[in-house]
Design brief:
The chain is an all-alpha fold. The chain has one domain: 434 Repressor (Amino-terminal Domain). The chain contains five helices and no strands. The relative contact order is 0.15.
Length: 86
Amino acid sequence: MSKLPVASFNTPEYDKLIALLKTIRKEKRVSQEELSRRLGQSVNFVLKIEQKDRRFDVVEFFQLFTALEVDPVEAFTRFAKEVRAT
């Protein structure tokens, strides 16, 4: 695992997290617009996260995956497996 730089969203691990979010969102057939609506946010909220223009914290991680109707613990487990596989 790489050292945590000041901007940890510029790491291979963060790339995997964003890729997982996009993959699950698409698997669930939920648009960025729909996910934003479910979260009570503007569409820019999800767009900026997926484009890595905005970081999200653990509370937002919980909210994002819950809004996608995915157990956040299962989502994190899937993320951890993908990181460990590299």
